Amino acid sequence: MTGPLLTPYEGPHLRLRNRIAMAPMTRGRADDVTGVPHPLTGEYYAQRAAAGLMVSEGIWPHELGKGGPGIPGLVTDEQVAGWREVTGAVHAAGGTIFAQLWHVGRMTHPLILRGGATPVAPSAVRIESQRIHTNAGCAEHVTPRAMTTAEVEAAVGHFAAEARNAIRAGFDGVEVHGANGYLIQQFLAENTNRRTDRFGGSREGRIRFALDVVRAVADAVGPERVGLRISPDNPENEIAEQDPQGTYRALVDALDPLGLAYLHVIERGAYGALADLRPRWSGTLIGNFNGDEPTTRAAGESVVEAGLADVFSFGRLFISNPDLPARFATGAPLNPHVPELVYGGGAEGYVDYPALT
C-alpha cells in the first residue's frame, strides 16, 4: 500500500524517509526533582524512529516554564547527558529527532514549581474555567505574575541557551513551541497580553516576543535547525485571538526570510490557517489537526495531497502504534489507545505497545 504520506520528502533543510512526523506529546515520566528523562525514554523514541521526523515532548528552558509533574528540562548538564542517551538511541535506529522548547507561562502552579514560585505570564490574567494537575492533585489556577521587561528579555535568552543544550545533547534540531496557549501564544493573544511596553499593545508589540525567541534560537544553532509550532485561533487554555489572520500573517511574513527548517501549523478553530499561511511560507510546512479524536491517515493524506503541507504530524496514534508508518504501509490494524496510561508511570502504556512482527 502506498500514498502521499509514505513518499520521501526533500526540502530546503530536511530530508525525510517519509512525510509522517511524530508530533510532540507530553508523557510526564521524567524525574520530577532533577528533570532528567526517564531511563526508558530512549527506548520509547527509538521504537518510533521510523517516522520521517520526530519532535520530542516539550522540554522546559527554565524552571518557571515547567508545566506539570514529570516534565523534563534541558538546562543542567545532568539533563543534557540524559537526553544524549535518548538521541543516541534514536540515531542508532536511523531516526531524526528535534527537541521541543516549551515554556508554559501561566499554565503551571506553585505546587509544580520549585519553592512554590508564582507562575509568570505576559500579564496577570488568571485561567478561570479549568483546573490544573499538580503533584497534590487537581487545583485551581492561580493568578500569574506579569513579567517585567527585563524578565521577558531574559526568557528569550533562556530559549537560546536551551537550543544550544539541545544540540549538545545530540538533537538534530529544535522546535520552538508557540502554540496551545503556552507562553509564546500568551504574548500573541489579545486577551492574555495586556502589556504597555514594547512586548504588548499593538500587533507589532504582541508578536515581538515570538520573533525575538525564534531569531535568538536561530542565531544560537542556525536557522536550518529551527522549527516553530503555532496554533492560530486555538482556544485551548483560554486563549482568545481577536484577529488570528492578521496576527499570524504578520508573524509568518517576518519569519519566512530567516530560512527556518519548518513551520508546524496546528489547524484548529474557524480560521483556516493551513490554507491561508501556506502561500506565505516558502519553506517546509508541517500540518497537524489537534482535535478531540486521533487524526486519521486519510485526513493527513488529504492535507498533503492538497498541497497545504509537505509533511503531516500524528500524535496519539504514535503513542499506541510505535510502528505507525509500517501499519500505514501494510494496512495493518491499529493498536487501541489507552488514555489513562498517557501521563506518568513507567513502562506500561509507554514502551509496551506491540509492533508488527
Strand content: 15-25%
Sheet with the most strands, sense and barrel status: 8 strands, parallel, barrel
What radius of gyration results from the CA coordinates? 19 Å
Order of strands, widest sheet:
3-4-5-10-11-12-13-14
Enumerate the spans where pLDDT stays under 50 for 5 or more consecutive residues: none
- How many H/I helices? 10
N-to-C series of helices and strands: EEEHEHEEEEEHEHHEHEHEHEHH
| Oligomeric organization of the protein chains | single chain
The end-to-end distance, rounded to whole angstroms, is 17 Å
Structural class label: alpha/beta
Helix content: 25-40%
Number of strands: 14
Overall geometric form: globular
Residue-averaged pLDDT: 97
Key features?
alpha/beta; two-stranded antiparallel sheet; 14 strands; single chain; 16% strand
Give a verbal description of the structure.
The chain has helices spanning 41-47, 77-92, 149-168, 183-188, 203-221, 244-255, 273-277, 297-305, 316-320, 324-330; strands at residues 9-10, 15-16, 20-22, 53-59, 97-101, 120-121, 131-134, 137-140, 145-146, 173-178, 226-230, 262-267, 285-289, 311-314. With 357 residues, the chain is an alpha/beta fold. Strand 12, helix 7 (273-277) and strand 13 form a beta-alpha-beta unit. Helix 3 packs parallel to helix 5 (203-221) and helix 5 (203-221) packs parallel to helix 6. The longest helix is centred in the middle third of the chain and has 20 residues, at 149-168. It is globular. The two termini are 17 Å apart.
